[in-house]
Every structure is written in structure tokens, then in C-alpha cells.
Amino acid sequence: MVSSTKIEYFDLFSKTFARDKFKQLGINIYECKSNRSKISGVHCSSNPNKIAVVVDSTQSNDVLYTWDMQINAEVDSIDVGKKYEIIFDSKGDVIVANDQNCIYDGTFLEVFDVNE
């Protein structure tokens, strides 16, 4: 279950699925009048221990948090702007692509048009 400030989930390795067995992701997004930050998306990879959480932080910028579900902790965060694509590799690692670069494992790789 995703709201604008929190994410609750079932542990896939739990033996029972009941409402009282929900866990909460350790990400903290606070609602207040001066702060427009809110969770705008959750992306799952082929690896059940890795997810990406998108936070709409300003009018011109989103922040992408990569999250380790096994230890319920942030792995990395990246300012991604507003125009981007989220891709996962075969291991479940996040790749962010926009019109200027690809971001993989914290490294910004410049991209080129085939006509350049």
C-alpha cells in the first residue's frame, strides 16, 4: 500500500498474509504546507530485495531512492529531474536514462544521439 508519505508491504518470505503483518518501508516523507515532497512511484525489479522509490520533491526535480528490502534501508539517492526512464538490469540494479546521460551505480554516463 502506497500513500504520499509511506509505503507498507507484505514480507514475501512471511508464512501468513494478514493486515496486521504489514511492514513499513523505512523511508520518511513528511507532509507539511511548505514541503511538496511526496511519494509518486514505486518500481520493482526482478530481484525481490531491490526496489526504486520516486519522490516528487520540487516542480523541476524528482529524487530516486534505491532501496534494499532485506535490510529496509536506502542504498542510494539520485536527483533525476522530471524527464527520465527507470530501467532495471538482469540483477535488479537500477539504471536511470534521460536525454543527457545514463546513471548506473552512481556513475553518470553521457549519451549521444546516433546522428552525432
So what's the oligomer here? single chain
- Residues in helix, %: under 10%
User: How does the overall form come out from the CA principal axes?
Assistant: globular
Major β-sheet profile = 4 strands, antiparallel
Strand order of the largest sheet: 3-4-5-6
Structural class category: mainly beta
The tally of strands reads 10
Strand content: over 45%
Please compute the radius of gyration using only Cα atoms.
Answer: 16 Å
Low-pLDDT sequence parts = none
**What is the count of DSSP helices, taking H or I runs of 4+ residues?**
0
Q: Mean pLDDT, as a whole number?
A: 81
Our measurement of the CA-to-CA distance between the termini, rounded to an integer number of angstroms, reads 45 Å
Strand/helix succession: EEEEEEEEEE
Keyword list:
globular; about 45% strand; single chain; 10 strands; mainly beta; about 120 residues; 4-stranded antiparallel beta sheet
